[in-house]
Amino acid sequence: MSSEPPSLGLGPLSRVRLDELLHEMLDRVGDVMASRERLRALLDAVVGIGSDLDLRSTLQRIVEAACALAGAKYGALGVIGSDRTELIDFITHGIDPATHAMIGDLPHGRGVLGLLITDPHPVRLPDITRHPSSYGFPANHPPMHSFLGVPVRTREQVYGNLYLAEKQGAAEFSEDDEEIVVALAAAAGVAIDNARLYAIAQRRERWLAAAAEITGVLLGEVHSNDALRLIARRAREVSGSGLAMVLLYDEANSRYTIEVADGADGLAGRSIPVDSVVATELGSEKYRFLENLAAVAEWPAAVPDGPALAAPLTVAQAMRGVLIVTQPHDRAADEEEAVLLSTFAGQAALALERARAQEEREQFVVLEDRERIARDLHDVVIQRLFATGMQLQGAVPHAARQEAVRRINAAVDDLDATIRDIRRSIFELRTPTGPSLRTELREAVDAAVTTLGFRPVLDTVGPVDSAIPDDIVPELMAVLREALSNVARHAQATSVRVTVHATGDEVSLRIEDDGVGADPAQARGGIVNMIDRAGDLGGEFEIGPGPGGNGTVVVWRAPISG
């Protein structure tokens, strides 16, 4: 019997053809199985990149999945800026941190990488270094030849580009590699869009929470300083900024004043003049992107270089100030962030306006109460004291003893002094609340008690707070302090009287002591300075003995008008 297998009625050529068909079928089955595995890997990758809503993590997952699907050694995802001309972010895979540091600055989208920016279609090259648009690689960059680039779209807009290099196990990327990476890029666009929408929703939630806190402030008692600090702190926290400033606009003096600076010391209280550049950049009715905050105005040294967002503080179409938050250099200008900041600034402006209105109401209540007290003192207390003094003076002719007359006259003098003190208090009650010259004078006199050993008598005559200009006040206070210091060091006095008299034309300061006296011819540095201060203001300075030749009298005058 023959041991050969049955021929099934096929000749030798037919059997060869059958073997070829069987091999081809097995190859096709292998291709199908490989395609199936790649499709399964693609589905796994799509599920993987869509499982995280953090944008940065999503971008990193996309790059890693693309490298795994296409068998690439290196991968990157370049994010395109809002101007659509260059890359603003570059997420890589396959390059260790040490190599990253040696390469230096990441690419901005020139050369072959820029092809997908100008023409967003897939690019597949066997050797990137031979392309006419190739710029070459920077120093310390790993060598790369085979290249595959695919755009990533989100809602019909190119978000960025996937770049793959160095195909593993082959000389170049295949058409199948391109197709599967294009499919991944489509899914990546959806994942990126979801992550961006989630990030926007989170930002909106944070800004709404901050605005709600400001609205809560509106419902309770609020002071402008507390409101400004809260505004700056919340704006800095929510925006992730390194510095947040609230600038208030002083239209009368044409300047901005930095009321609050959260994130930097030494800025609060500083002013910047408003020139054409500042007026354009900060005086807009809409938010503005500032490319370099330090270049906008002559800021103090603590203001950093770099981009910033400025949102106006506007109430009833009136410019109250501006809220500025700095931005990291690697963060692109974000329209959504600017709109949210602008909305927050509107709420902040309302809080500021309400705080001002509340403080004005409180001040009106205080002034009204002080006016009532002043009226009662003038109409009731002074009149009674004056009547009592008149009665005492009428009793002098009927006094039989000289001692009684002396006591009556002393009581009348005390009543006159009391009336003067009450009238001085009435003046103080009818002056505006807050810092005043009368307060500064009292503080200077109180401070001299330590060195003198007694408290000087202080008299103020006339509208001291309202009539004396601001440029004279520091000169007058400096002369007062110097004169009291001279009395403490040289006069050996037991009493001092300080009198500040303001009229419509001039202000005079008189310091009188009962000490050993002073020789005007021996004037030293302190007296020379007082003479110079009077001369600078067009005034006069006198020093000489007191009444009866005892003690010393210093008189310093300065004209108020002109």
UniProtKB/TrEMBL annotation:
<dbReference type="Pfam" id="PF13492">
    <property type="entry name" value="GAF_3"/>
</dbReference>
<dbReference type="InterPro" id="IPR036890">
    <property type="entry name" value="HATPase_C_sf"/>
</dbReference>
<keyword id="KW-0808">Transferase</keyword>
<dbReference type="InterPro" id="IPR003018">
    <property type="entry name" value="GAF"/>
</dbReference>
<feature type="domain" description="GAF">
    <location>
        <begin position="54"/>
        <end position="202"/>
    </location>
</feature>
<dbReference type="InterPro" id="IPR011712">
    <property type="entry name" value="Sig_transdc_His_kin_sub3_dim/P"/>
</dbReference>
<dbReference type="InterPro" id="IPR029016">
    <property type="entry name" value="GAF-like_dom_sf"/>
</dbReference>
<feature type="domain" description="GAF">
    <location>
        <begin position="223"/>
        <end position="362"/>
    </location>
</feature>
<dbReference type="InterPro" id="IPR050482">
    <property type="entry name" value="Sensor_HK_TwoCompSys"/>
</dbReference>
<dbReference type="Pfam" id="PF13185">
    <property type="entry name" value="GAF_2"/>
</dbReference>
<dbReference type="GO" id="GO:0016301">
    <property type="term" value="F:kinase activity"/>
</dbReference>
<keyword id="KW-0902">Two-component regulatory system</keyword>
<dbReference type="Pfam" id="PF07730">
    <property type="entry name" value="HisKA_3"/>
</dbReference>
<keyword id="KW-0418">Kinase</keyword>
<dbReference type="InterPro" id="IPR003594">
    <property type="entry name" value="HATPase_dom"/>
</dbReference>
<protein>
    <submittedName>
        <fullName>Histidine kinase</fullName>
    </submittedName>
</protein>
<dbReference type="Pfam" id="PF02518">
    <property type="entry name" value="HATPase_c"/>
</dbReference>
